[in-house]
Structures are given as C-alpha cells and as structure tokens.
Fold this sequence. Notes:
single chain; 10 strands; de novo design (two linked rop proteins); Rossmann fold; 3 domains; Ubiquitin-like (UB roll); four-stranded mixed beta sheet; 19 helices
Amino acid sequence: MITDAAPIVTARVGHDDSHTLEGYLATGGYEGLRRALELGRDQVRAEVDAASLLGRGGAGFPAGRKWSMLGRADVTYLVVNGDESEPATFKDHLLVERDPHQVIEGATIAAYALGVAQAFVFCRGEFALGLERLTAAVNEAYAHGALGRSIFGSDFSLDLVIHPGAGAYICGEETALLESLEGKRGFPRIKPPYFPAAIGLYGAPTVVNNVETVSNLPWIVRHGGAAFAALGTGSSTGTRLFALSGHVRRPGWYELEMSKVTFRDLIFDPSLGGGLAEGRSLKAFIPGGVSAPWFGPEQLDLGLDQEAVGKAGSMLGSGSVVVMDDSTCVLRAAWRITRFFHRESCGQCTPCREGGGWLEKILRRLEEGGGREEDLDLLMDACDNIAPGVSWPPQQTTICVLGPSIPSSIASAVRMFRDELLLHVKEGGCPLRGAR
C-alpha cells in the first residue's frame, strides 16, 4: 500500500533554489548539524544506531555498525561515495544536483560523530552540474561556518574535499574508490586485511558511506532515531529512494516508506510508475540494479524490504528497479548487461576478466543467429566457474563482487525464459525482432 510517510531526503528538491544556501537555510538546513553539536558525539551515534539506518549504496550494511568498526588512530577519514555508476541508477545524482547542502551537512554530522577532521566526497565525474553545485555549496558552507575551523563556534573542525572521479564503474566499490582517491588505478583491494575501517585511505582507518545514507543524518538527528525506525518494518527502516525505469508510463525517482510499499505499488500505482503501455503485460523486472537476479510477476507483491527481497533470491541493491514488458528480448537484455560488466572489469581477476568476455561472445552469437542449443548449457557452465553454484548471494571467486554479479542476468534469462532463448537458435535470430 502507498503510505503517507513524508519524504526525508527529497523534501526540498521540488524547490527551484534547493541547491542554494539561502534555499537550504529557509527549509531547516544545518539545524541538524547544530543539534548534533549540542547532543555530543556519543548521543549522535546512539541516535543513528536507534534508527537502524541501512546503507543505501548497495550492500545494505547498517551505518551505525559500520561506524562502530572504525579503528582508533591519530588520523581517520570519512569518504562519501557519490560514484553512482550502476546502470539505470540515478538517485544519488538527484541528491548531489538538487540538494548538495544536505549531502554536506550529513557528511559533517557523520564526521563529527566519528571524530574525523578530514572528509572527502568522491563524486562521479559525469555529474557535471552536480559537481558544479556541490563545489559551490562547499564554498558556501565554509563561508557560513558549517565547514572549516570551529564549526558554528564549537571545538569541532572539518576540512571537506570534493574529488571528481574519472568514470570507472569499478570505483563504486569502496576499496577501488580509495585507490582512485589516492591517485592510483581503481583496483579493488584484497579483504582482509584491507577492510577500510581498519586499513583504508592512506593506510588509515576510514568509513565509507553512500550519498543517500549521509543525506538521512540531518533528519535523524533533528527528529530522533526512534522516529526514523518507526517507518518501515524490521531491519528495513525509514524511507528510501528508488530509481524506476524501463517500460513504465512514469519512470523517475520515488522516495517511499520501506517494507510497506510493494513492487506492484511502485510499478502500477497511478501516482508512481503508472503501469505499462496499453496492451502490454509484465515479463520481468530487476529489483535492485542490473547486478541483481530478476524477478517475475509472481514477486510483484513483495515489499520494498531488504530482508524479504533477499530471501526471495535477489536484492534491493542500488535502489534501481528496471521493468521489462512482453516486448522485451530477454537475451538482448542479458547480453547488454553482460557487455557492460565485461567492459568495466578492472582486469585483476581471471574469472571476471576472461569469463565476462566468453559470456558476452556466446550471448552475441545467440542474438545474431549463430547459436546452438548447447550454448545455453555452456552459458551456465561458464557462469558456474565465475560464481560456483550460480546462486544468490553469489560465491566469491574474485577480489570484489563485480565478477560473481555477471551471471545474475544470464542465469535469470536461462532459468525463466529458456524456451525463448531456444527460439533464437531455432529461428536463426531474435524471435522478437524490433523488440525494445
């Protein structure tokens, strides 16, 4: 059901001046930071723990627990991950572009709670307008006293640096992001020992939080962790931004209360996705970014709930929901996703570097009419070598999860639509020529 939960991170994005300091202050901006400085570090951390705020970047790790893992050292860092690079995901882009001061305030609150004096926002380089506005907002925040020395007259000081990325998908992985931030090639690090909370940026303990995650902090500090936890159910608390795309009438971003709203609501409600085009029916949808296994119509009534979606065999991931109607060629969809991952592999690990390429070639052969029936079994065999068992969550054979994520779309297409894939062999090409 659609609930009446008020938006948290998108409350002001409808205002034309939402990206300016003047517009931000007029809508309660930096009141959360002032409140945090009054509460003290321990109480701020307690409120975040009480909120049960799950990370909004993909892994869904509780923010408060991640903070508690930070090693004690003379130098520690906070890094805000704004390298949103999962295809069809555009929620962080919205927040950086339309409400940059909220990102800065949330990062400052997190840095205060962690006792960090140096923070970075790693922002995707393609977000040209977002980077421009974020940089301008940082300058405004320094002038306003919300950054720099003795913030708002307190004994807390913070330097915040905006770092544009160069457009590598792999830098969305937190250790690859740290490598890039250090000026190196974006190669994921082996964990252990390189868990960022122990050995992170420049070898110092580091917390990496997502843009949407920190954007929730001003509201949590102002209203209390219990108020946030009262939204949603179980471990999926608060609201969350979902990027809806594909074959729906009203693609876009929607901030919804977790758990209580279902995929059916998101896709078909007239106030949200608005349903499919006239005469079309739902074929499949991807619930959490193209790394996630697909769902069919039978999963429509699942709530937007981290745990429920996980038990059903997929993930909410990056918050991207991609809808495919009955005009979709599922083979072509899986091929395009696989081609993307193969291209974006950093090349460190053989299963990802080589396996992704082999899978892409087999899929292309099937799509272009040169496939054989045994290619379907060959696809699954190659997938099994990348992620043994081809199950979810995937088994790790590589340094990061990019490689084991490649089989998700292929396994979904083979298991859900095997007959359609065989038609590509029988008919010497795609049976849905002209499909979207």
